[in-house]
Amino acid sequence: MFKTWKSVAFAASAMLGLAALAGPAQAAWPERPVTVIVPWAAGGGTDATARMIAKLLQDELKQPFNVVNRTGGGGVVGHSAIAQAPADGYTIGVITIEIGTYRWLGQSDLKTSDYTPIALYNFDPGALFVAANSPVKNAKEALEALRADPKKFKLASGSSIGGAWHMAFGSLMLKAGLKPDQYTWIPSQGAAPALQELVAGGTDFAPASLPEAKSLLDAGKLRSLMVFDTKRTPGYDAPTSMEAVGQAVKAGAWRGVAGPKGMPKEAVETLTRALEKAHKSAEFRDFMTSRGFGLEWAAGAEFVKFMEQSEADCGTVLKAIGLAKN
Amino acid sequence: METILAAFALILDPQVLWVILASAFFGMFVGSMPGLSATMATALLVPVTFFMGPVPAIAAIVTTTAMAIFAGDIPGCFLRIPGTPASAAYTDEAYMMTRQGKGEMALGAALVFSVIGGVFGTIVLMSFAPALADFALRFSSFEYFWMALLGLTCAVIISPQSQLKGIVSLILGLMISCIGIGVATGYPRFTFGYFELTGGVPLIPALVGMFAVSEILRYVVAPRLAAPPVQTRLGNIFTGQLGLIRTYRKGLLRGSVIGTLIGAMPGAGADIAAWVSYATSKKFSRQPEKFGTGHVEGIVEAGAANNAALGGAWIPALVFGIPGDSITAIAIGVLFMKGVNPGPTIFMNNPELLYAVFLSFILANLLMLPVGWLAIKSAGRLLSVRREILMPIILLFCIVGAFATNNTVFGVTTMLVMGVIAYLLEENGFPVAPIILGLVLGSMVEENFISSMQKADGSILGFFSRPIAGTLGAVTVLIWLSPLLLWLWRRRRAAGASA
Amino acid sequence: MRFNDAVFGAVLIAFAAYVFIAASGFPTAAGVAYGPGFFPRLLACLLAVCGLGLVANGLRGLSAGGWVSLSPALREPQGWFGIAIVLGALLGYSWLDDVLGYHLTATLVVSGFMLFLRVRPLPALALGLAAAILTYLVFARFLLVPLPLGPLTGLI
């Protein structure tokens, strides 16, 4: 019954709307404001980059791009909202690496094919930390200690169970021949509480990104052992995993722009072009590098491939950690 | 000294002063609107501060939240609808006072003691931040677990009538907090395949539903019975406040200290501070039987505590970049956006920014007296509008507030369901406030229990093995056992006397 | 609507049983002793105990009240109608705001509610419209809350 109600109301409003819009012929996308859904909270890293992108798109396409935060459930709520939005090009969103984990963790059925991936714009490598008073001095010692006695140490997941940093640390362990499921992982709300727990002595090792740990590194409460990347992050003295333990790993968190499945071709093309221009602009580059966000680019089919690869990788790591349900 | 002068120059810049003044009114508005909380106000400010400099951005957040936490008391006094969760603990008490014609005393106390608590928290922040932050950083999941349990105990202490019914409400609140994907468990619980529920039941819509919607339901069921004329014409709100300061100086100090400390604990903020200090106020009062009957003592202590917590929350935030509450979590993000990293470097690189935070706090608290007075006066005027016009408009504000929590009508649905549940429960003598406490603390209890058990390899002894955790644990167990011990002691004495 | 404590207690016990059974079906990850089912089941047990206490209380006081008693206002249709109006307004809002847009839905909710409370039609309509426009300006324009525009999309 509710359905009929809704459709009657819809028909009525559609007529109202048609009468109003009947004037000019179909103009080019975007002809009205676009909503940008962010699955993470206002004030966080994803939110910050999304707002910058929205501003640049707005400057380029001359329509407001409004950032809307839809938080909760480790990003499931926001990612679902993007996938279920009307595919008219007027709702897009920022998606993050977690999209590749929900299916494995049994949290949601979301997958790459539920989206129209537009472009990848950022990658932040994870890094490994110990408290300043830890007996472990460098990454080599850390891995040796972990190998020698898996039951002795408590590892922070650095995020919720199966989150980005949890997987980043897990994939390094896999490369180095350690078995992630032999260890006790302590989950947390995010990087800040995980690092606090590490300083408080509740855990022995914690993964997070370098910028997230900057304040505590500066305070001399933490030591960074290595960054899970193939190149060093400027401004930090953490060695790459290759330099530290001889394992080339690139693991961390990524962010990209996507819309719901079946977006109009014209909108996708215009948006991709505008995003590419924004990504190349000095304003965006300055903003990203000065805040410690890594730049990355992949658009269209290339981004689809990247997402599928990421989803598969997430599955491998989550299985190794012992979290994958299927 | 030079940095302080530089900071003064930063704050006294006309643009910043303008931002502070505007934020003051914005904060008053947000706080007194049921459905908009201080945290949400900060989130709503993020896009606005995006294009501001760091000093006005921080000044805006500090001022808005200070005002909002006080202003949350205003609708509580007039309508029995708390404006923010931090007022929920003593809303019934304040409303009772207004019903008895002591509205100016309740509101005056809320205002004056908010200012005193706020200034106290700021002074602690200015003088002891590094030391306290070091202490706060020693808290691990064991300590948090005990803290959360102590918090839950408060619900039982302050239940006015039946403690059994208070406990039932608390358990229901804790159960509601189980809904969704937990951080520690990673499994979608009780979501019935509905993706919005994977995020859990949002606090603000639940709060609005349980207080505002249930109040509106009571009103429509019996317009004349449920809403006897409430005092809207107020006398001088400042009359007698000096006397209150003198009478309750101990409670005032205790509330301010507890508030600041709880604020400084990462993850616990003004909401919890208000609960705990309202409970300690009752526990240590000479007239605990008067609590819940329109007694100002608890408002003094808890009103000071929730504002003191705001300053406290900046302690770990500024020193280590670890947020003390949900407000500073957003504020750190805003600072980060400006290229300012909180932490020890802020003391070296941007000391003027540090003092700007302090000065904004002091300015905001001083500004609270006139602006708060104005807000109380105009609220009284607005609320003297006939109820049949007021109630629909309140309902609309609740709808918008519930929507704005996560930008979805799911908030409105949540509000509706919670409102019906609360209405039924209250009709049957179950207090509603403990549900909110359960909802606030539920995930804290569960997550910290699970991580602690994992860290201690399943041994319960782990909960007592660290000095702070052990102390907190012993206190909790003692409080829980105290009725039993008291009973045993009385029995022995009675036996001794009869022998 | 007041129920005897025994009725309420029984309902709580049934609810606790449901939670316990549902939570027993939650999977546990490898090597985790306390999975997603632990806390809900613990709470369900506590709730059941409280429920028993309420049943005991209720049976003791049964002679005084009876099983269910309606508050005086609910003996008249007016009271039930009022509840229906409020619930209808909220449900209506959550279904219609997407299609009709915020302005129209908010006016409907406020004016409709006012009409039920016997405010005269013209003031009710005017106040409803004013409230809708004012809240839209404050929340959508100033605070950037994405209130839906519905048919007004693209016009303002």
Description:
The complex is a heterotrimer of chains A (326), B (499) and C (156). Chain A is an alpha/beta fold and 326 residues long. Chain A folds into two domains: 34-124 and 253-321, 3-Layer(aba) Sandwich (D-Maltodextrin-Binding Protein, domain 2), CATH 3.40.190; 127-245, D-Maltodextrin-Binding Protein, domain 2. In chain A, 44% of the residues lie in helices and 19% in strands. Chain A has twelve helices and eleven strands. Chain A starts with a helix and ends in a 5-residue tail after the last helix. By secondary structure, chain B is mainly alpha-helical. Chain B has one domain (2-229, 244-455). Chain B contains 22 helices and two strands. Chain B has helices spanning 2-11, 14-32, 38-49, 54-71, 73-79, 91-99, 103-136, 141-158, 163-177, 203-221, 223-226, 241-247, 249-264, 270-284, 297-320, 326-337, 344-349, 351-383, 387-406, 410-427, 433-455, 467-498, and strands at residues 180-181, 188-189. A two-stranded antiparallel ribbon of chain B has the order 1-2. The longest helix of chain B is centred in the N-terminal third of the chain and has 34 residues, at 103-136. With 156 residues, chain C is mostly helical. Chain C has two domains: 2-69; 74-152, no CATH class. A two-stranded antiparallel ribbon of chain C has the order 1-2. The mean pLDDT of chain C is 88. The interface between B and C is large, with 57 and 67 residues.
